[in-house]
């Protein structure tokens, strides 16, 4: 049993480490990748529950048993499915029709909470003569569902990818592999359960095999997906991926050689946000907020701005603020405004940042710029 606990602990640690890395890493963090992170965290949490059960924690504290009984596995295919569809901008996600996919999980939550309230907390909720039979049917449905649901969702996702046109070839191949590996993972779970029922292989052996397979699945996602995750953030950008750039090493070389241009779709969207929506006027604007709006990672946005504008993100945003300040200084309607008020109006958060950025962009302080302009007007 100690060997099983070690395997569980390794698998749980790996799952939480990789899951949180995807969620909080500046390079991979995006509204799409977070669902892949959620999927990995759900697998880690499931194994963590098994680990706690192996330590007899739930026997010592039965009131927490509901956390073990709820079939969290119903969330895995949902997060997985949403990641797939968001990666290809499928209309099913745009129209937010996917929320009903949580119904099986909500069924499991209600079923197990009610059951635990009655049998652990001794609350009398139902007063039916065939209550035992009702619970048996409900739990049978749940047991059948947590296997079949994973199969159905994975096959559905694969079918969508198969018929989806205009999808990046590398990204499509990566997503299809994910579907196949998910089906393989669930198949292994089913076969191990069947083997246990027929041959009585034992709890320890079954759990060890399941955790090893799940751990391998997580490791495969991270090891093979790091490159593919980068690709998923590129979406339909103008990065040319030929055979020579399919390797990570060559991709890094192409990026370092300024592979992005002003024609990049995300840079154009960024310019629209700045020039039409004036987002730079928000003093609290940051790189993460803009990346989330563009549905790309913060790291990828930083690379685009650095390559195209040859500035970091903050300096690039401040350049728009400086241009607006210059326009307001040249506008007679703002003659009664103080220079600091104009700077704050343009989106600068502090006086020091305003003066430093303005001089860096123009070579003059705001006051010198104003004086020089009036001299020009005078003459």
From TrEMBL:
PROSITE patterns: HTH_ARAC_FAMILY_1, HTH_ARAC_FAMILY_2. Residues 268-372 form the HTH araC/xylS-type domain. Keywords: DNA-binding, Transcription, Transcription regulation. The keyword Metal-binding does not apply. It holds the Pfam family HTH_18. One of its GO terms (molecular function) is sequence-specific DNA binding. InterPro entries: Homeodomain-like_sf, HTH_AraC, HTH_AraC-typ_CS. It comes from Aquimarina amphilecti. This is AraC-type DNA-binding protein. It comes from the Bacteria. The keyword Repressor does not apply.
């Amino acid at each position: 049993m100690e060997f099983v606990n070690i395997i569980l602990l390794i698998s749980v640690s790996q799952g939480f480490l990789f899951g949180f890395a995807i969620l909080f890493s500046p390079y991979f963090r995006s509204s799409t990748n977070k669902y892949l992170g959620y999927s990995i965290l759900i697998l880690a949490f499931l194994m963590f529950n098994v680990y706690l059960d192996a330590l007899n924690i739930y026997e010592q504290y039965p009131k927490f048993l509901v956390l073990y009984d709820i079939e969290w596995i119903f969330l895995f295919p949902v997060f997985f499915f949403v990641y797939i569809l968001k990666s290809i901008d499928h209309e099913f996600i745009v129209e937010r029709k996917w929320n009903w996919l949580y119904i099986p999980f909500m069924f499991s939550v209600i079923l197990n909470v009610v059951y635990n309230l009655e049998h652990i907390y001794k609350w009398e909720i139902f007063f039916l003569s065939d209550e035992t039979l009702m619970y048996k049917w409900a739990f049978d449905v749940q047991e059948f569902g947590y296997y079949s649901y994973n199969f159905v969702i994975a096959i559905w996702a694969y079918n969508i990818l198969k018929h989806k046109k205009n999808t990046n070839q590398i990204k499509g191949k990566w997503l299809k592999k994910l579907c196949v590996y998910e089906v393989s993972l669930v198949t292994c779970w089913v076969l191990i359960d069947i083997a246990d029922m027929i041959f009585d292989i034992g709890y320890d052996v079954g759990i060890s095999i399941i955790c090893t397979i799940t751990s391998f699945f997580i490791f495969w996602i991270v090891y093979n997906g790091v490159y593919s995750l980068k690709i998923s953030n590129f979406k339909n950008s103008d990065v040319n991926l030929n055979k020579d750039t399919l390797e990570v090493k060559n991709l890094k070389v192409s990026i370092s050689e300024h592979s992005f241009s002003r024609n990049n779709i995300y840079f154009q969207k960024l310019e629209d946000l700045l020039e039409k929506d004036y987002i730079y006027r928000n003093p609290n604007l940051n790189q993460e907020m803009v990346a989330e709006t563009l549905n790309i990672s913060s790291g990828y946005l930083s690379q685009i701005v650095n390559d195209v504008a040859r500035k970091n993100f903050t300096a690039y945003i401040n350049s728009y603020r400086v241009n607006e300040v210059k326009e307001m200084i040249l506008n007679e309607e703002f003659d009664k405004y103080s220079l600091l008020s104009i700077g704050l109006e343009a989106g600068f958060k502090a006086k020091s940042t305003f003066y430093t950025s303005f001089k860096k962009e123009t070579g003059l302080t705001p006051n010198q710029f104003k004086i020089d302009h009036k001299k020009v007007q005078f003459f």
